[in-house]
Amino acid sequence: MCPEQIIELMHEYLDEEIEPDKEQILRDHLQTCKECETIFNELKKTIAFVKSISHMQAPDNFTANVLSRLPKEKKKVKLGRWLKNHPMLAAASLFLVLMMGSLYSTWNQDREFSVSKQKNLVVKNNTVIVPKGETVNGDVIVRNGKLEIEGEIKGNVTVINGEKYLASAGHVTGQIDEVNEVFDWVWYHMKKTAQEVIDIFDQPETE
Amino acid sequence: MEAIVKKRIKQVIKGDQNAFGEIVEIYKNSVYQLCFRMLGNRHEAEDMAQEAFIRAFVNIHTFNQDLKFSTWLFRIATNLCIDRIRKKKPDYYLDAEVAGTEGLTMYSQIPDKTPLPENEVESLELHETIQKEILKLPEKYRSAIVLKYIEELSLNEISEILDLPLGTVKTRIHRGREALRQQLQYV
Q: Which of B29, B50, B177 sits opposite A46 (nearest CB)?
C-alpha cells in the first residue's frame, strides 16, 4: 500500500503548487507503482471531465429580466442620460425655454398704450377709432387699448392685449388678429419672426 | 475589462440602471453557470443568478471599489446557492457524515461499480453524468470545485469568495476531486 503522502503530492501537483524536489519524488513513485499511476490518471481525467462541461450560456432575455426586476430609477438620472443621448434636442429645448422666458418678460414690460401711425385714425384716451366713411390704408396695430372700426381698413388688424369692436358698417380687407394671452403673444412673435425670415428669402426672387 | 467595470460601477452608484445592464451582460454567463452547476436546475439557476445581480445592484454602495467586482459578485451568488441548497435539503437525508471529512457522506465514498444498462448509457450524455456527480457532492466541496474548474478561478480568489483560509479551500478541493474521481473512474 502506497503512503498517503503520495496522494497528497498528487493534489499539490494538480493545484500547481508542488515544489520541484517533491515533483521528482512523485514522478519516481508513479513510474514504479501502477496503482498510484491509475489514481493519478483518474484524477487528471476527472478534472478534464469537469472542465469539459463549462461554457454555459445564460438564457435569452436574462439581462432584460434582471433590469425589469430592479427598483425604480431616479428621475434625475433618466433625464441626465436623455440629455446626453440627444444633445441637439437638449439644446433646442433649452433655446425654447430661454426664448419663451425673454418673450414673457417683454410681454410683462410692454404695458403702454401704442398704436401704429396712420392718418385718419382718431385716438381718444386708450381707444382708437376708425371714423365712419374714412378709409385707412396699411396694417393697424393697437397695443394695450381698444379699437373701434366704423370705417374701412385696407390691411391687417392686430390688437394686442386689448379689445376690438367691429361696427356693422366697418370693414377690414386683411386678417384680424387678437393677442390676449402670453402663449398667443409668443405664437404671434414666432409667426412674425418666421414671416420675416421668409421675406428675407423671398426678396431676392422678387427683385 | 476591470477598468470598464469600475467605470460602470461608478455610474451605477449614481443610480444609472443602463450601466448596470452592461455589467450584467459581462458576467451573466459565468454567474448563471455557477448557479446551474450548484443547483442542477435551469429554472432555479436563472432565478438565483437574477437574484444575485439584483442584490449586487441594491448593495452596490457596500462594494469596496478597490477589490475585484467579480469576486464580490461570485460571493453573493455562491452564498445564495448554498442557502437555497440548505433550504431544500430533504429531511430524509439519512447518510451520515464520514468522520473527519467535513460533510462527505458514505454515499459519495462508495464507487458506483454497477454498470448502467445499455440503453441508459446511450441516453445519458457524458455531460449529464458529470453534472449529476457534481451535484452529489456536499455543497462545501461543490462550491470549491465549481469555482476552481468551471469558473477557472485561482485558489486565492476562491478563498476570498468563500471567505475561508487558503488551506481550507485546498482541502475542500482535494476532497471534492477525490470523491469525483471515485464516481467517475469507470466512465
A: B177
